[in-house]
Amino acid sequence: MITAAVKEATPESQVKRGSVVKAVVVRMRKERRRKDGTYIRLTTTPAVLINDAGEPVGTRVFGPVARELREKKFTKIVSLAPEVW
To answer: How many CB atoms neighbour CB 51 within 10 A?
Structure first.
């Protein structure tokens, strides 16, 4: 989990520009070693905004997410994602 400031937002969105929010990083460009010895590295570092209860603010997640999110109890984000790596 990270704390972030919103740089861009559409006018009709719930989250406004300049607000401070909590987010969960779902993929990382920096390579990460898993317990089984494999390394995973993706092309971007996107995050999903979450509320105080740990549930996602949005209703869609684009692209694959890391399987470590299931271990960290972010199952709602995993269920919204089209693919889990």
So the answer is: 11
How many Å apart are CA 39 and CA 80, to the nearest integer?
24
Tokens of 85: 């790596």
Cα 61 to chain centroid, rounded: 8
Q: What is the pLDDT of residues 26-57, one digit of tens each?
A: 999 999 999 999 998 888 999 999 999 999 99
Strands 20-25 and 2-5: antiparallel
Please state the three-class secondary structure of 3-29 as a single string: EEECCCCCCCCCCCCCCEEEEEECCCC
Is a pLDDT exceeding 90 seen at residue 60? yes
Q: 1: closest CA among 57, 35, 49?
A: 49
pLDDT of residue 20: 97
